Every structure is written in structure tokens, then in C-alpha cells.
Write a sequence for this structure.
């Protein structure tokens, strides 16, 4: 239902641009169930679960860093090493 409202909020996006998100609606449940099954099968002890949380946190940190870098490069027009100049 939320996806149905996207075109009114993002009118510049072509309808085909929403195809990925529509596809994810059916895939998301499957992916969640798969992730839960892996967790239940492989991370039984508290120590194993804590280790997995650290791995997940690292993954999220990497993704946020990538998002920050893209924002800096494309929104703030500050590409990587923009302030280093010819010092490299």
C-alpha cells in the first residue's frame, strides 16, 4: 500500500523505476524467513549471536559509509579527496 503512494510523492520517477521495489514486495518475506532460518541453525549460543550482531553492525556501517560518500559526491559535489588537491 505504501508503494502505491510513491508516484504522487516522486512524480519525476518513471513507472518502470518502481519495478525493483514492487518485485521486492514478494521477495522480502522470503528473504526474512531465510535469514531467520540461518540464524536459528547457526547461531545457537549467546557468544555466536553476539558475534553475528557485530558482523551485521559492520555491514550496516559499510552501507552507511557508502551512502555518506555518495551524498558527499553527488549532493555536496565533494568527490573523494576533493580537498587533497595535487598532494597525492
Amino acid at each position: 500500500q505504501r508503494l502505491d503512494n510513491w508516484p504522487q510523492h516522486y512524480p519525476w520517477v518513471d513507472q518502470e523505476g518502481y519495478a525493483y521495489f514492487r518485485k521486492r514486495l514478494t521477495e522480502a518475506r522470503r528473504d526474512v524467513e531465510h535469514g531467520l532460518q540461518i540464524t536459528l541453525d547457526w547461531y545457537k549460543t549467546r557468544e555466536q549471536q553476539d558475534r553475528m550482531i557485530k558482523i551485521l553492525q559492520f555491514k550496516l556501517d559499510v552501507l552507511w559509509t557508502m551512502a555518506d560518500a555518495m551524498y558527499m559526491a553527488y549532493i555536496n559535489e565533494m568527490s573523494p579527496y576533493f580537498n587533497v588537491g595535487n598532494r597525492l
Summary: The CA atoms of residues 6 and 58 lie 31 Å apart. The first helix runs from residue 6 to 9.
